[in-house]
Structures are given as C-alpha cells and as structure tokens.
C-alpha cells in the first residue's frame, strides 16, 4: 500500500513539473511567426548546470537571427528528471529563427 502512495505522489509531482513553459524573446519583430526547431538538451543539478550546450546562432539559425527560445517541460522529461533524483534532467528547447 505504501508503494502505491509513493507512486501516486511521484506521478502527481511529475505532472506538475510537465506543465512549465518558458519563452524568452531575443529579437522583437512584426513578421508572422515561423515554426520552431526542437532540440533536447541535458542539464544536471536541478537544471542549473548544462551538460552540453551547442545552441549557437550560427548552428541553429544560419540564415538569420534567433527570434525566441522556448524552454519546455514534457511529461517524459519530468519522468527522467524525477527518476534520477534531479541529477540528469533533459530539457526540450524550441528555437524560432527570424529570417
């Protein structure tokens, strides 16, 4: 019975983590929005230290500037992060380019 209680608390915690979405506007523009390119990046120690970060303007938007960076949690990202006790946390990053 205690296992089911712990499991349900863990699943509730994961579902709350998976609802977060942070948008950072890098360049303002009146042009219509374009589709984002999705990248998965790994962080460690509670999303503080990136394991690797190769999201550079030259590699992500070779023909323009970065318009927005959208940091997203998914239920799978939260499950991996919670199951590793926040030691390894994947993060889904959407990057929209300004042509």
List the helices and strands and how they pair.
Layout: H1 2-17, E1 21-25, E2 36-44, E3 49-50, H2 57-60, E4 65-72, H3 75-83, E5 89-98
Helix pairs in contact: 1-3
Helical coverage, percent range: 25-40%
Strand content: 25-35%
Instruction: Give the helix tally.
Output: 3
Number of domains: 1
Q: How does the overall form come out from the CA principal axes?
A: elongated
| Number of DSSP-assigned strands | 5
Task: Indicate the mean pLDDT.
Answer: 81
Q: How far do the termini sit from each other?
A: 56 Å
Summarize the structure.
It comes from Leptospira semungkisensis. With 99 residues, the chain is of the alpha+beta class.
Walk me through the structure:
The structure is a single chain. Helices cover 29% and strands 34% of the residues. The protein has a five-stranded antiparallel β-sheet, with helices on one face. The longest helix has 16 residues.
């Amino acid at each position: 019975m205690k296992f089911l209680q712990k499991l349900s608390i863990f699943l509730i915690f994961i579902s709350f983590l998976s609802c977060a979405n942070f948008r950072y506007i890098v360049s303002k523009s009146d042009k219509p929005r374009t589709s984002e390119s999705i990248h998965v990046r790994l962080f460690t120690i509670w999303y503080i230290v990136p394991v690797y970060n190769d999201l550079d303007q030259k590699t992500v938007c070779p023909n323009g500037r970065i318009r927005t960076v959208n940091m997203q949690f998914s239920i799978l990202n939260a499950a991996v992060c919670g199951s590793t006790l926040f030691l390894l946390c994947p993060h889904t990053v959407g990057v929209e380019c300004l042509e």
